[in-house]
Amino acid sequence: MSREKTKYHLLKVIVRIIPIQIRSAPWNCLLENCLGVMHGLMFALSVMVTQRLFDAISDGAAGRASYRECVIQLVLLAVVTFGQQIINGVQNFHGIGVLLPKSAGRLTELIHRKIRKIDPVRFEDTAFLDDLNKAKEGIKAITMFCMLIFVCVSFYGVYFIAVGIYLFRLKPVLLLTLLLAFVPAMLAQTIHVRIFASLEEESAPLRREHDYYQKAICDREYFKETRLLGAFGFFYRLFENTMKVLTGKIWRAERKAALLRLLMDFTTFAGMAGSAYMLFTATMSGEITVGMFAAVFAALTQIFAMMQEVVVRQMGNMNRDVGKVVNFIRLLDMPERDGMEGEIDFTKGITAENVSFRYPGRNAFSVKNVSLHIAEGETIAIVGENGAGKSTLVRLLTGIYRPTEGMVLVGGLDTGSYSVSSIMRGISGVFQRYQRYKMTLKDNVTISDYTAQADSGRIRSVLTEAGFEKGNVGLEDMLSPEFDGTDLSGGQWQRVAIARGLYRANGFIILDEPTSAIDPVEETRIYRQFARLAEGKCALVVTHRIGSARLADRIVVMDGGRIVDIGTHEELIARPGQYARMWEAQAQWYERG
Ligand code: ATP
Hints:
Elements: H1 10-24, H2 26-61, H3 67-117, H4 126-170, H5 175-218, H6 220-228, H7 232-284, H8 290-333, E1 350-357, E2 367-374, E3 379-384, H9 390-398, E4 405-410, E5 413-414, H10 420-425, E6 427-430, H11 441-446, H12 456-465, H13 490-503, E7 508-512, H14 520-533, E8 538-542, H15 546-549, E9 554-559, E10 562-567, H16 569-574, H17 578-586
Parallel strand pairs: 3-8, 3-9, 6-7, 7-8
Antiparallel strand pairs: 1-2, 1-4, 4-5, 9-10
Helix pairs in contact: 1-2, 1-4, 1-8, 2-3, 2-4, 2-8, 3-4, 4-8, 5-6, 5-7, 5-8, 7-8, 12-13
């Protein structure tokens, strides 16, 4: 599958994300912008009030203005400056303390709603999982990104327009000041972005490698094996090498950026000097008053500093965050799995008609031309070597994956035309890659039924049926050392997962080898419990162990994605083939059973 991604340009991103941000907290966005406009006006006002103060003082010194007039102008400046500070404080508090958390909550909800509609098969694609994680990182970035746009438009925009009008009215050529402050800063920022974009492109694969080596050294899942195998030195050497190359690349990019900053500082200084000279000549020729000269001269530093702030810091931050925002938009634009809502009654039997399936990004078929009918109330076991396609077939028969070719019918209805949630409602099961939820033992069992009042008696009974020896673990005990709780052994966790499957008794029951850490005889006992539960329902059992497979009404033997044999246990052991060989090899496991 092509991994070619839709390109989103900055303007397109802004047009797309601003309405999303506004919908997430409309009143707060309005308030944030009003505060920005007021802040910008106050800043511009301070330039004008400063001019009147200097004019009053110079007139006062020449005896043309009273002492009282000078004090009034001074108080006015103090009020405007104080007002500016207050508005700035309120805006900061509102942006970071109110708007950001409120929007983050709403945007997270948006992602969760979207994820529920995405085809489950996408979750098998590591590139998609990568995109999903990146989209989640984008949640905070979106509000920060939009706040920057709000600030640029409402605060800086209003300030520069007001000061621009003021300068133009003083002397039109002074408008050049804004241009001189803007152009070099903008140019430098564009080059700066290019430098770091190419650094990112060059170092992204290297950083992934580097992060992986660090994980192999420190992460919980790798740590034990890395230490046990004495592989610490091996990974550390790789980690060190990648770090050296990465640091070298970063250093070279930083050096280029520093030279650029130096050049920009020089042009800024030249721009300021030029503007000051224009002011000076205008004052000397009597075009503008001393007060105007003083006010604009004082404002020059502010204008240049602000331009740099807008272009370098704010636009720099925007460029830094735009990637994260794009990841969020990409997730929202991802195609959804459509389908009707409805009750699917799996007890009515399941039929696969010429079903073939290919995972996203794979050329080879994992399941090829499978036709199978599971009758009402029938239990089918699927056996076969690793990679034969057993788990994939189960997901196709349940309707969780849609076939690439062919169709799966439940009671005559095509599962492909139903929504994922309708399908999931009819299934109960335990899968190979079950979850170890960092929650209490009770929650771990009852998680599928959060609306019902948990029945302790039933929880205990399913735990016993799954062979879970509680020891000193209570139902309310937290199963995670991370949350000050306890941890379970691999086998105990499997039994908790099985108890969870038993607790959710649904029309279609699936056991996809959740028992690898449990011995074969015990596995057979657990599967018997399931068989009892599955009476009158359709059930699928995936196993490598014949002792469990023989409990099924019929056994399907898979190889290379195809069904190579099918029959009862007795029929299959009576003819030479893969099943008979597996039975032969495993018979001694069950001598006790
Ligand atoms: P096992 O007994 O080891 O669990 P299985 O018989 O259940 O194996 P499947 O997991 O269905 O086999 O895998 C069938 C084929 O599909 C394998 O070749 C495997 O490499 C491929 N496959 C499985 N999962 C994915 C995936 N997420 N992406 C791409 N290919 C996959």
